[in-house]
Each structure stands twice: as structure tokens, then as C-alpha cells.
Input
Amino acid sequence: MSESTRRRTRRGAIRLGLMLAGLTATGGCAREIGSDTPQESPDVPRATVALAMPDTDGARTFQTNLYSERDADLFNRLMIQENVGVGTPITAIHVEVGDRVSAGQLLATLEDSDARLDVAAAEPEAEIAASNLRRVEELRKTGAVSEAEREDAIYQSRTAEAAVEKARLNLSRTEIRAPFAGVVSRRYVRVGDMVDDKTPLFRVTALAPLRARLLVPESEVAAFGAGAPVRISAADGTTGTARVVLVGPTIDPGSGTREVIVELSRVGDFRPGASVTAELVASPPADSEMSAPDRGSESGPSSAQVSAGQ
Output
């Protein structure tokens, strides 16, 4: 065999060896990054954006977050003509972030001198108008006044009374109160700040009930009937049972999913925003209570944004 032939043979053997090594490395990488091998730990989430993924035992699991339906920013609704474009100062703050509050509890007080003056001016006007109406009604019986005069007196009395009610309502708005029971999750202002109707004052968040949003493929949604039990698990091992409360009526054309809302009424140590795993179960677990004691019993109206002092 000539020298040139031997060189060509060696080069071919080297190329073949490199190709075989590359195939071996590719196979090894495929096994390393695979996410659906039988050896995968059952604790590893199989979903990242609340999409239904079948488990090995047929259960459906989701990685999602809890949220509160009653989670509201409170705003100043005081309407004082003299303060338009200027705002109203805060004279006292009665709570701090983290404080539990009950429905109607006082959170802050605004300067109320102008509002009190408006009430003081409106009340005598209403008393005069009411007295005049009584006099007109008596004279009407004798025919001394016309029906038109009587109707005008009624109008004046009702207008004056409405002005009193408006002034009293405005005065009540100098007291910022919690719209429902929960916890003060944000405080945006300090004593002395000038606030108008666009300035958020506090955020109040109810700790119960909590909900989670699941995006379920249309092919799987039949299993999520109203009231179906869903096991909620946190990273620290805390568990609870939620129930399906809403199945969205429409299908998202981009993902082919329907929205399913589950509600956890006994929240224990769960908190709004917590990252949890939700798993559809065939029947309620033997221990349907929370593994941690229940601490949430707040209730109140649902709202995404609530104005204070109503």
C-alpha cells in the first residue's frame, strides 16, 4: 500500500471516530435535559404557567399562585370646592402595614374644618325651608296661596335637605375606613400629605377566601365540574382543599384553554400571592381540613378598586 493510500485510510478512520463520538454525546445530552423520563421526581412541577399536565397516575397538576378577590386601593373622595386642585391634608393615620382591620375600621383622618363649615351652613337653610313649607301648607288650606306656590315651597325644602345630606356625606368622607375585613398590605401616604381623588391612600387585602386561576386545555376541562375538589400544596408542605367555583364559558384561541377558578375557603397559613401546586383529585381527601390552623374568616364585597369614605 502506498504512503498516500495509508494517509487517506487514517483520515477516514479519524472522521468515523469523530462522528461516532458526536452521536454518543448527543444521546447523552438528550437524556440529561429530558423532562419526561420515568426517573423524574414527582415533586418537580410539570407546569409553569398553570397549564394542565397529566401526572403518571392520571391526576392533573398545576403550578399557580393564590390571589384574594377582595384586594382594594382606597382613595380620597372628599369634595370641597376650596380644595379643588390643591388636595386635602392628612391629619392622622391610625394603622400600619400588617395590621388586621375589620370592616368599617378607621384607617386615617383628613382635615375636616371645611366639611364641617359646609354642614353648619346647610342645616339652617334646610330648617328655614322646612318651616316655610309648613306655613305654606297651612295657608293652602285656606286658599291664601296657589298650588304653584306650594310646589315651589316643596322644591325649596327638598333642595335644602339634599344639600344637608350632601354636606354630611362629605364630612363622613374625611374619615378613611376599611371597606371590608382584611390586612393593611400597603400604606402610600404620611401625616401632612396633601391628597386628592387620584392619590391612593392604603391597600387593604382580605386574607380569605383565596382563589387560584388555572388554564385548562379544552380536552381536559370536563373533569373540572363545579364543586370538584382540588388539592392545594405549598412548598413547605402545607396542604388544603379548594373547590372549583367557575369554569370560563369561552376558549382562548391562542392556547386552546379555558379558565378555571378554584377557591380555598379555609386558608390556614396560605397567603395571597403564594406559589402553590394545584392538583385535581377524584374525590375529597380523607383529611379535608388544613394541616395548619385556619386564620382567615374575613368577608366583604368584592372590588378591584374601592374609594374610601363611602
